[in-house]
Write a structure and sequence with these properties.
- By secondary structure, the chain is of the alpha+beta class.
- Helix content is about 60%, strand content about 15%.
- It has 3 domains: about 100 residues; about 55 residues; about 150 residues, Histidine kinase-like ATPase, C-terminal domain (Heat Shock Protein 90), CATH 3.30.565.
- The strands form 2 sheets. Strands 2-4-5-7-6 form a 5-stranded mixed β-sheet. It has a two-stranded antiparallel ribbon with strand order 1-3.
- About 25% of the residues are buried.
Length: about 325
């Protein structure tokens, strides 16, 4: 934000105050290239136009009494500045396209890898069935152990398949489906909690759902189920990293409406995060979990919510937890 506000205003104002001398002309041209390199080309274009206008107004109000730019120099200066601006614009657009292609390629590769994991998981599921079938002929004590082992194996396969579904959905970050349906927020949250593969009874018991008032919105139920799943997973991971054992209510999911907008709030009492992390967590491939996180979950959530003209924000304090709030347009 500091670069976006100050760079074009300051440099254009100084260019005018120094009568457009060659040093400031070259500096202003270099500023365009740096500006488009540092920011998105759309923001840079808007900032350049508004900054040049603001710099001209400041010069008219507080500028020096110098003679200004000589009329004979104006065409040459316009050519130099126009060329610099055009090259900066092309640099910004090409960089944006390159980043988009790299992101699309990486997401596609992740989706393929996640899908290929289903084959060994299917084999594991068959092994679990075979172990369960052998349990009755191995005696009561051994049979009970085999039944328990088979149950754990099937639970692991279900958990892994759920994680694969999440990764495949996250890998569709750049190509979300456009189908929409009317969704009950209360039903969405209840079903997401009921279907989530909790690792233990204690983990399940720490989740509390409060429906203050139900509301309906338009969107893809499958995608928004994935959004709730991602936010729950992050909250449970934060609780697991806390020093205290989880208690009922440590993960609170609230559904209600406020100021004409539907609201889903997911609150945890985990480790939280500082303001610097809050500014970056929605960026693709940025993750606070360096061990297993890929940094796509929250970027996916933001893209899904924004696709229906909603918003998602976070409020957090280190060591005190975090609140993720989804605000969605209502439908009647």
């Amino acid at each position: 934000m500091i670069f976006w506000i100050t760079l074009p205003v300051f440099f254009f104002w100084m260019y005018l105050c120094n009568n457009g001398n060659p040093v400031w002309l070259a500096t202003l041209g270099a500023m365009f290239l740096i500006y488009y390199h540092l920011t998105d080309w759309r923001m840079a274009t808007l900032g350049s136009v508004s900054g040049i206008l603001a710099g001209w107004i400041l010069f008219r109000l507080f500028g020096t009494d110098a003679g200004g730019i000589a009329p004979t120099q104006v065409p040459a200066h316009l050519v130099v500045l126009g060329f610099s601006w055009y090259m900066g614009l092309m640099l910004g657009i090409s960089s944006s396209n390159l980043r988009r292609e790299q992101l699309s390629y990486t997401l596609g590769t992740m989706g393929i890898m996640a899908h290929e994991l289903r084959t060994p998981l299917a084999t594991m599921s068959l092994i679990g069935d075979a172990v369960r079938n052998e349990a009755p002929v191995c005696g009561p004590e051994s049979g009970a152990r085999l039944e328990k082992l088979s149950g754990r194996l099937h639970s692991l396969v279900r958990n892994m398949n759920h994680q694969i579904d999440m990764q495949i959905s996250n890998a569709r970050l750049m190509r979300l489906p456009h189908q929409k349906e009317r969704i009950s927020a209360a039903d969405l949250v209840r079903d997401a909690v009921a279907d989530y593969p909790f690792r233990s009874t204690r983990e399940r018991d720490c989740v509390v759902v409060q429906i203050h008032s139900d509301f309906r919105f338009e969107g893809s139920r499958a995608l928004f189920s994935q959004v709730v799943d991602n936010l729950m997973k992050n909250a449970l991971r934060s609780l697991a990293a806390a020093t205290t054992a989880s208690q009922p209510g440590d993960l609170l999911i609230e559904v209600g409406a406020h100021n004409g907008r539907g609201r889903i709030a997911i609150t945890d009492r985990g480790i939280g995060m500082d303001e610097e992390l809050q500014d970056r967590i929605f960026q693709p491939f940025f993750s606070t979990n360096r061990g297993t996180g890929h940094g796509l979950g929250l970027a996916f959530c933001q893209r899904v919510v924004q696709s229906v003209h909603g918003s998602i924000r976070v409020k957090s304090t280190p060591l005190k937890g975090a609140i993720f709030t989804l605000e969605l347009p209502l439908v009647t």
